[in-house]
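Final report, results section. Input specification for complex C-07:
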Amino acid sequence: MKKPTMTIFFILAGCALLLSGIWIYFQKMMERVDLAELRNSRAYERHYVLIADDGNSMLWDSIYESAVQEAAATDACLELVQPDDNPEYTQEDCLRIAIASKVDGIILRPDGSREMQELIAEAADAGIPVVMVLEDDSSSRRISFVGLNSYQMGDAYTEQVLGLLKPGRTEIMILADSEGGDVDTGLVSSYMARTVEQRKAQDQTVDISVQSVDSSSDFNAEEVVRDIFMDEEGLPDVLICMDEVITECAYQALVDYNEVGNVDIIGFYYSDTILDAVARGTVPATIALDMAEIGRYSVDALDEYLSLGHASSYYSVDLNVITRENAAAFAEG
Amino acid sequence: MSGKNRFPGVNSMQTKLSAVMFLVLLFVVGMNLFIFGQIHSAVARIDAVFSSNVTINELSDMLDQVQGTVYEYLSTKSSQALEDYYRYEQDYRERLEDLNDKNIDSDIKILEKNIRSMSESYLEQTDLTVQAKRGRNVERYKEYYEEESQIYQYINSYIYRLNNLQFRRNSENYQLLLSSMDVLEQVSLFIIMIVFVVGSAVAVILIRDMIRPLLALSTASSEVAQGSLDIPELPVVSEDEIGVVTRSFNQMVVSIRENIGKLRDSMEKEAQMKARELSMEAHLKEAQLRFLQAQINPHFLFNSLNAGAQLAMMEDADKTGMFLEKMADFFRYNVRKMGSDATLREEIEAVDNYIYILNVRFAGDITYTKDVDEGIDDIPIPSMILQPIVENAVQHGIHDCMEEGCIHLSVHREGDELRITVSDNGKGMSQEMIQAVMEGKTGGGEENPHSTGIAVVNVLSRLRLYYNRENLLQIESGGEGKGTQVHITLPLEETEKARQDGKTAAGVLEGSFGE
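Structure output:
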């Protein structure tokens, strides 16, 4: 090839290269403009909804994380409906929306209300299976419950209480959410009373009381817990919290009212603050269910029901007692 | 274009220039199209970004219309409201088709799916409501209406959420696209500059490449115009008009060079011819002069000699008669043969006569011998060749020792040549003398009052002209006192040819003067 031809060829090739570079750059840029949000997304066979009743909790995040992985493995996508999404809607509204949206399965924590029972029945009529987690409402037409029953919970708490009994009189207060569904605080307390009675020392007397916290309205739990701490006379020796929000409130009040060492808190589940408190010994122990198992089992229950037509009505999950010794392991995740 | 090509099979300059223009324009257009395409896709992308919000808003409006007509129908039960309801319901259903109905793990897609499913539930419920109203089932339709209104609220809130979600995402996308457009603007400016630079470069390179042979041609033609024809052949680099002109130019230079060569040759030949002609003319003039000088005397002389011979006969003086007869023969031959070729015999007889006369004059002192081959008597040779040589040998060789002088003439035929040698035992010649005689500086007989008048130089010149050859006559001598040999070599073929052509000095003489 003649020299000028070669020069022109190289010039044009350089231009082509430059244009290709620019074109690729813009293609990349355009790809970043995600119109349909389809990047990294895939279609699934089924659509489940997880209705969380407390959006701020790590608990629901843990359940959702494991459940969404399990759902993906069984060709289903899991939608997390949190109170934050629709502040004006109740859990029942969310359930109605899920039914109207004709989802393939619903996972929720029941509040034990009649309305919810009716809605679960409506869902069952529409062929939508409902799985309950953490708490059970056996009178509803849910297909499965994933969690621990009252006896197991009672046993776990009782074991911790026994280690905290003082010589003489020990006052124990159980703080439970009034919307606790089937988790019968009464059952837990009576189991605890009976067991403690059997295993306590002769000189020890134990007084167990139950305080219900109405968490249906905002900030109520915090007010109730503050009330307890303000009444120094009625302040118990051991405070058993049956809810992660109550646990957090109780711990904060304990610090605020300078009652560390006077009141022992046995918490439910954990947050970073609680784990920190446990690690420092401010909180002796907290009871944590294996939330990853809850998420996994709840999706398994739905999948089993939809595939086989039936599912086990009760999935028992592991229970962890977090104390000063193993707090670090949980903090690491 | 090719139809107008005056040089078939040649890429014309027009085609090439058009191709260059086309290439540059193609490049410019291509670059512009590229920029245009990029801008277009970016703008289309911005359009698409907000079209999703527009779609959602339309969906919301249609939902309101459905709900409104249901309410109106329930309130008034007007057939117009019912008609509107069915129409809006249909529109709404159609619009729902655009929404996602797959279980995709994306916030927006799952919201769309929920809206679509809820809308379907809602439309089922509105149908039930309308049916109940038509069936005048008051209790049911109120109940259904409440339920559908609730779903309507849910759908609206979901649409609101979807709109928010999309708007938030679209705003991010919009920011991204705006920054892309900024970059695109700068890139476009850059590309335009590149187009300018590259387009110019391509045009300059191609045109320079095309013009280069033209420049070489113009330089070469300037040189030729200044008279320098020794230029190297120009290379033909392209098969276009320039190529054709270059090739023609090369041919032209070669032709001019050849023509000039030929012209020079012919002029040289002409000059040679002219010189020869002039030389011949000079010799003729000389011969003619000598002839005219001699003409009167010999005629008168040999007529007188004849008269003398007859007188001697009458007086019975035989020797005198013989002598006068030989004298008469000699002069007669001299006069007669001056204008034509002679035979070898005639030449030898002339020598014989000359020697006889001398011997009579000098009382028989000269010893003369001859050795002539048989059968060569009739060979034609130019006249008056031998006698002047012999005369020269007598005058310059043996003149001072006539009584011992000896002259030998030998004539032999060797192949195509006739070799004649005249030798004497006279005083000989030095090399300088021989050289001088051969170069015509001396050795002639004209300065000698005893000579018959024809010098060796004249013989030499006539032989050269007659045969058109050099070195036909050679003089040898051993030096002072050792005698002299004059060798004459005559080519027989040339003799024949010359005779046929009539190209002889004598012939010319003959034509000029006759006898």
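Chain B touches chain A through 49 residues (CB under 8 Å). Residues 1-5, 503-515 of chain B have pLDDT under 50 and may be disordered. This concludes the modelling results for the funded period.
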